[in-house]
Design a protein that fits this description.
By secondary structure, the chain is an alpha+beta fold. Helices cover about 20% and strands about 30% of the residues. It starts with 10 loop residues before the first strand and ends with a strand.
């Protein structure tokens, strides 16, 4: 349980000048306190190693001397003051902890100015800490008694609840996590008490200030402006509002749930067994970082994408730390590879993720990518950071908010706006990349087509009366406000009982065009012998349904004759094949119901009765045996 403004949960100590654990160069940007009186940052970087948390943060600290214990207490109180500021949005007591020396005053001015910018953003974008818990892992304490100076290496981590997430879900708000932020803190002894002289740590905002020479006063002046950061509805388009790619029969669905699951598993503890962790070099100029490598892993490992053009740097692949495509690790090249935005004509790769650069946050979803410009250059090829969306909040039919995961810095379930910087620069826009599909046509384990007219059916929206053998199937709401409940039934599903379902989706052919959004719920029939649909047994009467379900919010434009895949429904199929009655070769029936009461909006897809029966619904499943 996170306790608001708690004094501290616990401190983990490792006191040794020679045994600091090293796991690679520190991610993110370094702040170097060569600060001028106006609050801008000098360009000399400070790079320090990253150290992983090696003990539970609740472990009782080992203190080898009274002076070390006093230093630890001062640093703990310093962090408590910082965290308390993000709870109250007031910098109470910070000045009293800082040394009165020239170096201390310079640090106080610079750090206070930077924190005031962050507090202003927290106020504007509802990023105040409703609740928090922080962890300190002391790696080294070096005391020079003759000079009355101490240098401390400490790793910071935290769990926080942001104000906006508390508003979205008051009973069970998201806990956002940060790990492995290394600080080098210098203290001086004044009148018998230890005071903070400087705090060197790596932070994207410090990196921006250092790279651009922009003052914190300018950041405060433009905070919340529309001149930079994510564009909102009504702004000039940055990209698209839909993703209308050229039809390609070799594509298949992007498994968003799997990509998100991978991101959540490895956001805070990178998968260093299978992939090199690319360190960040603060420069100048700053280079490297693991952010795009991490996103590529999630798309490939969890999303089930195929690597593209292995051995060719123009592709998207990873072999080892010496052999990988630029698009696998580079922010700009990933955008170029996925969207073809900077290529002449529509040149599609044979494998890998395909999608579009979208207008704003309202047109991306879980598993999609957001990119940022941190160094102020603003040119398309110079953008600096990427994150993957781990959760989307549908705040209204046309407004979405997102949680993200990232490497360098290592964050999980963080507000995407927490990386925002506002300046009146037209090119400094946050970029949103929607992954529409994957290319490469891997041979699925199951690819079953509707086999008879009564196996895809539902009511006609004109009168909301069920018709078992119409040549189209409707989704959404009836003209009278009633709900359309339609079914898709597939025979001879050859999956052994208790298999692990890796992915599953339906491919539907659009009988459009359509633009108005609808929202559906997909469930499966949990019964040993689902019957074909008839006037005496329509989909709406099927009551034995799976507990597992999938919501499908459809907001993109549908064009006639194009194909659309449902979201991943593997949890539904998994529940069915795990039933005691299930045997390989049985039938699966999937029920689509309206999830927007009283709507009259609907969309239509091909039914089996069309002359082009091969374009009726397909059920595609990938699995591994029990």
């Amino acid at each position: 349980m996170i306790r608001t403004r708690r004094l501290f949960l616990g401190i983990v100590i490792m006191l040794s000048l020679s045994s600091v654990l090293i796991a690679g160069a520190t991610p993110g940007f370094a702040d170097n306190f060569g600060i001028n009186p106006q609050g801008t940052v000098a360009t000399t970087p400070t790079s320090t190693p990253i150290a992983t948390l090696t003990h539970p943060p609740t472990e009782t600290p080992t203190v080898t001397s009274a002076e070390e214990g006093e230093i630890m207490s001062v640093i703990t109180a310093y962090f408590e003051t910082r965290y308390s500021a993000f709870n109250s949005l007031q910098m109470d007591g910070f000045k009293n902890m800082i040394a009165k020396s020239t170096e201390g005053k310079s640090f106080l001015q610079a750090e206070s100015s930077k924190l005031h910018v962050q507090l202003k953003y927290a106020e504007l974008f509802r990023l105040r800490y409703e609740d928090y818990e922080f962890f300190l892992d002391f790696k080294d304490i070096s005391i020079d008694s003759s000079e009355r100076v101490a240098t401390v290496s400490v790793i910071e981590g935290h769990d926080v609840i942001f104000e906006k997430f508390k508003e979205y879900n008051p009973l069970d708000p998201t806990v956002s996590k940060m790990r492995n932020l290394e600080h080098t803190i210098v203290l001086g002894k004044e009148q018998g008490e230890w005071k903070i002289v400087s705090d060197y740590y790596e932070d994207y905002l410090w990196g921006f200030l250092r790279a651009t020479g922009v003052s914190t006063d300018e950041l405060l002046l433009y905070a919340g402006s529309q001149g930079s950061g994510p564009s909102g509805p009504g702004d000039d388009p940055v990209g698209e509002t839909d993703c209308d790619l050229v039809n390609d029969e070799t594509t298949y669905a992007y498994y968003r749930d799997g990509a998100v699951d991978y991101a959540r598993e490895f956001a805070l503890e990178p998968n260093d067994e299978d992939y090199h962790f690319f360190p960040f070099d603060p420069g100048p100029p700053p280079t490297g970082g693991d952010c795009t490598n991490f996103i590529s892993q999630a798309i490939y490992e969890g999303g089930n994408a195929l690597m593209a053009n292995e051995g060719n740097d123009l592709g998207w692949y990873y072999i080892d730390e010496y052999d990988y495509a630029t698009a696998w690790t580079h922010v700009y090249k990933m955008l170029e590879f996925i969207t073809f935005e900077f290529l002449e004509g529509y040149e599609m790769w044979q494998e890998g993720p395909e999608g579009c650069h979208m207008k704003n946050a309202n047109y991306v979803e879980e598993g999609d990518v957001i990119q940022y410009d941190w160094d102020g250059v603003g040119a398309w090829e110079e953008w600096d950071h990427g994150v993957i969306i781990t959760k989307t909040y549908q705040l209204s039919p046309h407004v979405r908010d997102h949680e993200v995961a990232s490497h360098t810095p290592e964050r999980l379930d963080y507000p995407y706006e927490s990386f925002r910087i506002d300046l009146p620069a037209p090119d400094m826009k946050t970029r949103f990349i929607h992954i529409e599909r994957l290319d490469g046509s891997p041979v699925p384990d199951v690819d079953i087509l509707i086999s008879q007219g009564s196996d895809d059916a539902g009511p006609n929206p004109n009168d909301c009366i069920f018709r078992p053998i119409d040549n189209e199937v409707y989704l959404g709401g009836c003209d009278n406000g009633g709900d359309i409940i339609s079914g898709f039934r597939f025979e001879n599903i050859e999956i052994p009982q208790y298999s692990t379902i890796e992915s599953a989706y339906l491919t539907l052919t659009v009988d459009g065009p359509y633009t108005d959004p609808i929202q559906l719920i997909i469930r499966g029939e949990k019964i040993s012998t689902p019957l074909t649909y008839s006037m005496t047994s329509p989909p709406e009467d099927r009551i034995y349904l799976t507990s597992a379900y999938r919501t499908w919010y459809i907001s993109d434009e549908w064009q006639f004759g194009t194909q659309r895949n449902t979201p991943d429904i593997k949890n539904i199929i998994q529940e069915i094949v795990d039933q005691s009655y299930w045997n390989s070769g049985q039938t699966i029936s999937l029920i689509f119901s309206n999830d927007n009461p009283d709507t009259t909006i609907h969309r239509r897809v091909y039914g089996y009765e069309r002359e082009e029966a091969q374009f009726a619904a397909h059920l595609v499943i990938n699995f591994t045996g029990p």
